[in-house]
Every structure is written in structure tokens, then in C-alpha cells.
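User: Quick sanity check before I run a bigger batch. Here is a single chain. Can you write out its predicted 3D structure?
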Amino acid sequence: MCFSLQKAKSETAPIVITMLGDSLTAGYGLPIGEGLTDQLQTALDKKTDKKKKIHIINAGVSGDTTAGGLARFDWSIPAETDALIIALGGNDALRGVPPESTGKNIEAIIIKAHQTGISVLLAGMAAPRNMGEDYVQKFDAIYPYLAGKYDVIFMPFLLEGVAADPALNQPDLIHPNQEGVAIMVSNLLPHIDRLTQLLGKSDNAIAP
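Assistant: Done. Predicted structure follows.
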């Protein structure tokens, strides 16, 4: 079962995608205009049909957990949102939150989005390997399981090609620098292309 948006929109209205996340979304430690949503907006402005723009809204809060994202869903997601990128869970893993709780929170966010008529792109996270094999296996399994259960667009790992690389991260080795963010954006674009098609806006597909 594939969920798609049925909201009526004028031909000139932009597709609105809100990114619900933590410091990775908020742009922690980066200059203004160089955060994830800013770089993503710039890339989309260059690649999409000028007549049918995509507008990215930053709903990232540094330090947020999946519980926090769920709690603020109603006031963080603007009414005009067509699609939601869920980019939460990293702080849950860093704090050792039970994977069962993390999974329930993300599932609840997906359900709330669908009940509101919002399509979903789920961006996966991975637990630090020092959390122990049992924790890592349970945490990492959350995202593919929920993506399959609710048939949402799935990006397996938001930090693919970036995580733990000193050249692509700030000194804390947790938060990407501008170059790392650029790679994240490049990895996200094909999934956002699928989102636009899911929304019945195939004429807005991102050019290769």
C-alpha cells in the first residue's frame, strides 16, 4: 500500500517538503546558508523545473530525539507541507534509548503524517558500533522495517559516505562540515525525485 498526497494545489504552487530532524537538519556548527536544508534548497533550485519549484522547510532542532520530534509534530510541521523527511534517531542511539522506544516514536510520526495526507521519506540512521552488537542490530533494523511496513520512500543511511570521515566532519566527528553536507545532499536528491513522482508531480522530476 503506497500513500500519496491528494491535496489540491495550483499549477504554480511549490511542492513543500519539511525536514523533521535534529542537529544534522538544523545545521549545527555551520555558517548560515551552508546547512543541510539550505544546501538542499540550492541544489533543488538548480535542478528542478523553474515553473514547479520545491520549497524545503527546516524543522530541525539540535539535540532532538524521536520522542521530541513526535511531541512537536503538530506545531513543527506547517499546514502546507506536502511531504515529510523524517531524519531522527541519531540522538536516541547516542543516549542509548531502547530501540523499541525509538521504533514506536518513528512509527507514530509516520502514522501522523499519513493521517494528515503527507507523504514520507524516511532517512535511516545507524547506532554507534560501540553500543554493543545486540543494540546495534536492533537499532539499525528499525528503519528498513518501518519503511517496508508503511511503504514509504527509504534512504538507508542519511550519513552514507560521510560518517566518521575527519575530512567531511567538524572536529567532533559527529556533525558534517560543508563538504560533508554536500555529499548528504547529493545522496538525498534521488530520493526527493521519487517523492515528487509519488506526489503525482512527475513533470517536476529532478534532472540527472
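The CA atoms of residues 17 and 83 lie 5 Å apart.

User: Great, the batch can go ahead then.
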